[in-house]
Design a protein that fits this description.
By secondary structure, the chain is mainly alpha-helical. It is built from 22 helices and 8 strands. β1 (417-419), α19 and β2 (435-437) form a beta-alpha-beta unit. α1 runs antiparallel to α17 and α10 (203-211) runs antiparallel to α11 (218-247). 49% of the residues are buried.
Amino acid sequence: MIGTIDIALLLVIILALAGLMRLWPRVTTHPRWSLAGLALVLLIGLTHQLLFRTIAEDGFITFRYALNLALGNGPVFNPGERVEGYSDFLWMVLLAGLHALAGAPIPLTARILGVIAALATIALTYRMSLDLNEGDRRTSLLAALFAASSGSFVAHGPGGMETTLFALLVMLTLLSSLRGAGLLAGLLAALATMTRPEGVLLLPPILFWGWRGPPTSLLAHLRTASVRLLPFLALVLPWTLWRVWYYGYLIPNAVYAKGGMDLSQQTHLGALNFSEFALANAHVLILFIIIAIALTRRNVHIPPATWLLISWVVLHIAFVIGVGGDWMPAWRYFAPVIPTVCVALFNLWATNTRNVRLNISLPRHALILFAFSGLLVLESFFHPSMIPRTRLLALQVGQFSAMGTWFHQTLPAGTLLAVYANGSLSYYAGVEHPVIDLMGLTDEHIAREGNRSFKRAPWLGAQDYAYVLSRRPAVIVFGGGGFAAPSCAVQRSFQPAYVGATFRFLHTDTSNPYAGDPPRQHANLLLLRSEQEQLGRWLTRSPEVEPSLCPPTPPPVTPHFPFPPMPDPTPTTGGE
């Protein structure tokens, strides 16, 4: 759905591309013209990010950890429960520090930092390309332009997650290694690992890069490798020891929750996820085609520096395929490779087309590549896994946020909640309301002891309804897609301890095309039967919400993206 704001932002991108085209003949005449061109590319990157403008539901898990840390409760999801349900330590600490020192709102801060990190990564794409292409400003601008035009990358800037910071640290690590700054490369690789666990995959490429060169003594090779390895270990080892001491486990809780699936099926899902990503990002596909040609023929030259970039890209993609990919729009786990792919692709272009008639210094030839970048931007609108999917998520995040705010305003502190979609609802409910994650991402028992026999995808987590019943949460929210049609259905596993109840939100955006027809405005809850009357009085204190009559029979279950319906081996019945 394209609105007025989208049209205005597209117009800005078109004007920026036109301005870059006009500057093109002057780019090599003076550095100020190339900087002007880079400014236009960054404007395209910023505007492209604003087209997405959707905060990610999963980011709110880290936000709640950051809030607890800033409040002095420690890096925990629920005060008093040491469970490592996040995988972005550095991002969490950064958000917590800014909130504690300056009172910066965590979700807004995360979005701003994500956008800045994306723009810095695009600028670094230009800088790295300059280094590899002997100062060729045109080729370097094209590399940066393709990164800015990729919806799969820029979508994650305003999403509030660590994706663009991780991409920035990866680029800084590779650039430092290329420049021979081994000590700095090791430190940056450590920071990348503390931002995303797969940052450790930077070690083999940067160690190999330091090892290359003419044959020397083994001692010299070891000395070179230690310059990169020791700074990495100096940061990562103490941090890992602290994690084991604080949380009690080496492997994060979220990894346990997502584990347990058949490896071949998981890899198959990851391969499908990558194929969708590659087809939606033609420059990624082109790079792999060039690599395949180079490995079978000798007429394609791949410089050693480009092999460094390619080796990390291949390792990262293989890892993501192995873990089964991810459910989020715009292929979040694959997104960090895009800037590196752009540098490698245009380095191969510059290296292998020096004697070819196609000359990007000519505006009519450059126009072909500009048009291609424009098509990448337009694809953000029309590919179902990009803007259409993020707009649906925006609606759901808003609805879960409204539910969380409702609980925060009406339920007394200490009221135990259990939720399926653990994110914005839990964050806005407040840290004074402990939350059980029904999929186990932030719950140690469910993650390590829960049932996994139902798993159809690694991101579905685990479950243990008997354990949840033993905790006796006052309110359970099973819905995974935000508001729904009214229903008082109760899973048989939760009878007779719970009763269904449905509440209508009075001031919702019913004009949103993703709200459904008729618009879904109800929050369907399970209330602890022994506290049903008191909970009902508390929940109806809000002027924004009114109780609704239960329908005579439960309506058919319609799964709402992004989560499939929670499996239950027994049928459901209506509430009272």
